[in-house]
Amino acid sequence: MSRLTLTNEGVLETLKNQFGEAIISSETPYDLLTVEIDPAKNTEIIKFLKEEKSLDISFLTLLGGVHYPNDANREFCVVYHLHALVANFRIRLKAYLPASNPTIDSIVSIYDGANWQERETFDFFGIEFKNHPNLVRILNEDSMDYFPMRKEYHLEDATREDKDDRFFGR
Amino acid sequence: MGKIEDVPVINGEGFQLSVLDKVIATARANSVWPLPFATSCCGIEYMATMGSNYDVARFGMERMSFSPRQADLLIVAGTISKKLAPILKQVYEQMAEPKWVLSVGACASSGGIFDTYSVLQGIDRVIPVDVYVPGCPPRPEQIIDGIMNIHKLVKTESLRRRYTDEYKHLMESYNIDSNE
Q: What does the pLDDT look like over A70-79, one tens digit per residue?
């Protein structure tokens, strides 16, 4: 049985042939294939990468959010890191969302492991994952009324009273 | 009873006059059962305090009570996140009177370096604290000093502290029902 080998160019070519317009752009920082995808097609693309026999990119390493407050209409980014365990090939998918409606389809139906990570991303960034089975806060206290990793919020606790900036070096 | 009748009793020997309050207070102070609520590095320092080098057993405190029902002193050592705050409060409420609280280290006392959205900025936001031990983390000597200050409180406070107006007012300010 010959070992499956994947290259950045080959995988990108396969994706472009399959999805065309949904593959918006790509780059290879540190030789890691990074593809910007249409957020409406995220489940289709991830499912294809997993189920296509010639790729077999079937392990979700990481799912997370990023906030770029200055990029109009693409303030939020959902990043998927995927890994082909057989070919030892990694790929990163990015889907940008507008702050007015940061919503994307959940991939829990493809990877159960995304359940926690989507909840966590919702908890910290307020990104809504459609069809997630239980999209509620997971790490922060339930009564928290904002999404703390969004950059409009200060890192410092807003309720502090006793810490005088003069003494705490701010 | 037969045996005691055999012993010759001389007036003035075998008894001692004192104030009952003080006898009880001394007994209490020398058998404070601590509940260590340890979450991080301050907890390690408290473990050293418990160990043979520093030995809290010298003060009748070797019996750690991991049930709040049988504890007299709540020792909070470490960072308390906001999510943990209601649990800490519940543990405090489950303790029977009389009860004292020792806040060990910068985090428990003020949030410490964790001035951030997820960390409670001092446990005195949810429960009343008797003695604060500063330090990040404090050395066992400092923790023992804090324990000595707790002992002073135990020895000098009124035995029925919970019936005083100040105490009731304090509990009310924390929304804790002191009549439970």
A: 999 999 999 9
Say if residues B104 and B45 touch (Cβ distance below 8 Å): yes
Pairing of strands A23-27, A59-67: unpaired
Asked if A151 has any chain B CB less than 8 Å from its own CB, the reply is: no
Q: Does A17 touch chain B (CB under 8 A)?
A: no
Q: Are B61 and B147 within 8 A, CB to CB?
A: yes
Whether the CB-CB separation of A149 and B118 falls below 8 Å is answered with no
User: How many Cβ pairs within 8 Å bridge chains A and B?
Assistant: 40
DSSP strand pairing (A89-97 vs A76-84): antiparallel
Nearest CA among B33, B36, B29, B55 for reference residue B108: B36
Instruction: List CB contacts (< 8 A) between B116 and chain A.
Output: 155-157
Mean pLDDT of chain A: 89
Q: Is the full-model pTM beyond 0.90?
A: no
- Distance (Å, whole) CA A124 – CA A118: 10
SS3 A88: coil
On whether the CB atoms of residues B119 and B111 are closer than 8 A, the answer is yes
Q: How do residues A13-34 score in pLDDT, each as one tens digit? A: 999 999 989 999 999 999 999 9
Mind listing the domains of chain B with CATH numbers? 1-30 (no CATH), 33-173 (3.40.50.12280)
Phi then psi for residue A91, to 5 deg, are -145, 150
For the A8-156 domain, the top CATH level (class) is alpha beta
Residue carrying structure tokens 């001389």:
B10
- Nearest chain A Cα distance for residue B116, angstroms: 4
